[in-house]
Amino acid sequence: MDWKKTDWEGNREFGAAYSIHTEPLDFAKWMMAVMIYKVLHQESFNELLKPYSEVSDEKFYTLGFFTEQAPYDPVFFHGGHNDGFTCGYVLDVEKK
User: How many domains does the chain have?
Assistant: First the structure.
């Protein structure tokens, strides 16, 4: 596979579900910044965490996250895997 011309799936186009390539430490820093509302303006956080598409009752996709709005405070999570790598995270911006 030519890593300079393809993504992990071997496709040449961008895909929101699989196009982030980062180191675990950098990704953790990003998630901590999101959790404590740093790095972005408040308007950007509002857009990032706002429900955009409904999956089912009380379950939504935001920009990059899956969330359930009830019966508890909203938590945001996402997971996935590529060959040789698996990732999953949960983010609770209210409880940090």
Answer: 1
